[in-house]
Amino acid sequence: MKHKKIALVAALAACAWTAPAAFAQSANPAGVAIGLGLGAVGTSTKVRSGTDSVELGKTTHVGSNVDLSYTFATPAPLVSVGLGATMDLGQTKSGTMSVGASNLTVRLKDHYSLYVQPAVEINPNTTLFAKLAFHAGTAEGSGSFANFSINHLSGLGTGVGIKTFVHRNVFIQAELSSVSFGKESIAGGAIKPRLAAGIVTLGYKF
Predict the structure, then answer these.
(1) In whole angstroms, what is the distance from residue 15 CA to residue 33 CA?
(2) Rounded to an integer, what distance in angstroms lies between the CA atom of residue 109 and that of residue 112?
(3) Rg of the Cα trace of the chain?
(4) Per residue in 39-74, is it b (16+ CB within 10 Å) or e — as a string?
(5) 179-205: per-residue pLDDT in tens?
(6) For the whole prediction, is pTM greater than 0.90?
(7) How far is CA 18 from CA 21, 23, 32, 88, in A?
């Protein structure tokens, strides 16, 4: 998992260095960009055991990520399409439960996404966008109720947002997104994590 993420970062970083120099002097969104995102992340996890299921207590915390992308102009006026990847900086607590002497905490780790982001220009410096993303990572649970580790967790996410350039190469992006991971089996049952996030990204376009 970590090797795949490192290879992904290296590939996108290489694109940044080899992109045409004309992009660096352009005020439009086309080109390679890197950003650092910070915002609120809300998570929850449904745990099923036999015919019984319980929703772990929802958690909200500050999350951060790195975003690398390449945006293409299209033949359609004012329309662009971005392809990119994000990686969380740190792990994400995805729900807790405490019933009597039993307790369980679930955490998402190594979370990354691959996305496509079509956008439409509303003025020379600003675009509105939608996002469809594949999300993956690992998960672990700990507590007296259960202890488990999941090496591969995946799901789909959607999002909408706005991106505006405050300088020729510097932009701010605000986005609302949600992710639903697939159900994964654990000893005696299954888990299904979900998350929603509001992220503000400060970025630089090469």
Answers:
(1) 10
(2) 9
(3) 19
(4) bebbbbbebbeeeeebebeebeeebebbbbbbbeee
(5) 999 888 777 677 788 889 999 999 999
(6) no
(7) 8, 11, 10, 25
